[in-house]
Write a structure and sequence with these properties.
alpha+beta, globular, 104 residues
Length: 104
């Protein structure tokens, strides 16, 4: 299973402090979905950057780019136009609590 990262770019600086009610509701749906994907074992880690630029990150596993893109595009914040997603392949090299994979 390949690892991927997507960035969630909000529409403006200070987004967390200036969300509208509609944006808050979309982010609530986002959080519920994130928790479900985490419980299912798809997500490795998630979190926002703090401060004026509130970009979120999601590291997850998917078998290929099409499946990874479907996961990102299914995020309510992206699907509903409240944020812009950016997908990239990713490799978790070190993660506390995760067994180290030998490299060649």
């Amino acid at each position: 299973m390949a690892e991927w990262i997507y960035f969630i770019h909000p529409p403006r600086d200070d987004f967390a402090a200036t969300m509208t009610e509609a944006e808050r509701e979309a982010w609530g749906r986002h959080w519920a979905r994130i928790q479900r994907l985490y419980a299912e074992g798809t997500i490795v880690l998630v979190g926002p950057t703090l401060g004026r630029h509130n970009t979120g990150i999601c590291v997850f596993e998917a078998p290929d780019e099409a499946a990874a893109r479907a996961i990102m595009d299914g995020d309510p914040t992206i699907a509903e136009g409240f944020a812009r997603g950016e997908l990239r392949p990713f490799r978790v090299s070190l993660l506390r609590g995760r067994e180290r994979v030998p490299t060649a």
